[in-house]
Predict the structure.
Amino acid sequence: MDPRKLIGPAFAALLVGAIGGGIWYSHSNLRAEHDSAAQRQLEATREVRIHGLIVNQKLVLDQISALNTTTGNMIETTSEMLKKQAGQIHEQAASGTIEVDKLRRSFENVYQTMDAIATFKTRSLDSMQKTVEALSTEVTKARGYLDKVRQQQSTAALTTGGSDPGAVKL
């Protein structure tokens, strides 16, 4: 039976070398070396895993640091913009008032308009008074004319004695 098939290639080479050299290892010695090699391999695997975890952790920490830096920069920039805009708002509020000369001219225009309306009212009242007087004179004349026409009709009705069927009798 081939000892390489029983133990495994690595240990078979060790065993063949030991047998060829005249050294006999006992089964417990081989087992101890196998356990020791397995332990070293396990430790190496752990180290590789730990190294990978530490590298990943470092990447996460770097990303968190970059995020914190970016957030800090944004907060600082926002506060600077707020400070600048607040100053601009105060400047506009202080200087944004209407110029005094323009305000005075506006009031002067309003006063002139009010004077023009008052003058128009006075003129229109005078004109209306003249119109009313003229109409009153004409109404007085019209009453006189109506009275005259009524009187003539009454006189004519009395003198004709009613023979005229179209005559008006009062």
User: Anything to note?
Assistant: Confidence is low (pLDDT under 50) at residues 20-25. The helical segments are 3-7, 9-20, 27-95, 100-160. The two ends are 169 Å apart (CA to CA).
